[in-house]
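Exercise: predict the fold of this chain.
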Amino acid sequence: MAWQYSDKTKILFMNAVNGDSRSHFGELEDADGVGEHGSIACGDAMKFFFKVEKAEDPVNDKIVAAKYSTFGCTSAIASSEALCEIIEKGDYTPIEALKISNDDIVKFLEGLPSQKIHCSVMGAEALEAAVADWAKKRGVDLEALGVHLNMKDNEESRLVCTCFNVTEAELKRRIVELNLHTIEDVIGALKAGGACGACQHAPGGIQDLLDERWGKQSEAPAAENSAAPKLSPFQLSKKIEAVIASDIRPMLADDNGDIEIIDIKENLVYVELKGACATCPGASGTIQLVVEKKLRELVDDSLRVINI
């Protein structure tokens, strides 16, 4: 099974990687608004630029050009392209552009795989940072206009996921906005919890925030295969290899990526992502939501996958 991308997503992605003149990939010199989200160190980063046609009253400035700089998978690039197209075709002021949500981006792309939703979130956050930059340059007091920036909440909020710099404020907001009910949902949408995993069940961590919003869920029954006969090391490795070949590798190949098994020690599977997947902003989510999840379902529910 491969990622199911819409034709719209594929076209936008191919325009960008092929250097098509319709693509918005690149930087705008002397941009009026510049915003970043994430960090290269965390493997997830985007830089967004826009220019405006200046009006006598800065509040009425109109965005006339938008570009982005990001690297990664089909979803990350297509989502960035979609954000730029929505803005340029919508005759937005910077403040009006703040109404564009990640859901608008997903709809523009005619859908995204659930494990790739975080790519659309990245664009919406970078846009907000760019609008804040424009407001500072143009002397616009956003608070006086009643415009609230989520990034201010994030700056003042407790850090929950240190791997991806996701705060309590952002988690609470996105849990509601994106209707996230499980840790797997959060990893797919925000990547939070998808690296070291320490914040998943820590006090005040992801599960506690989910329980606070939706109520504590009863524990799931033990997996049916937990009582199955234990596989020998040889049988385990062969079964892992078979599942990667038949179920996981085709998914990654759809994003021009691949995976290599480096070692298997008891329940730890050490792998290395290859091709486009190696530098994809969603690499950690791919490991947990695709590779690990599939191996647990089809091989052994105690397996843990580590990307090296």
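Check your answer against the key: Residues 220-227 have pLDDT under 50 and may be disordered.
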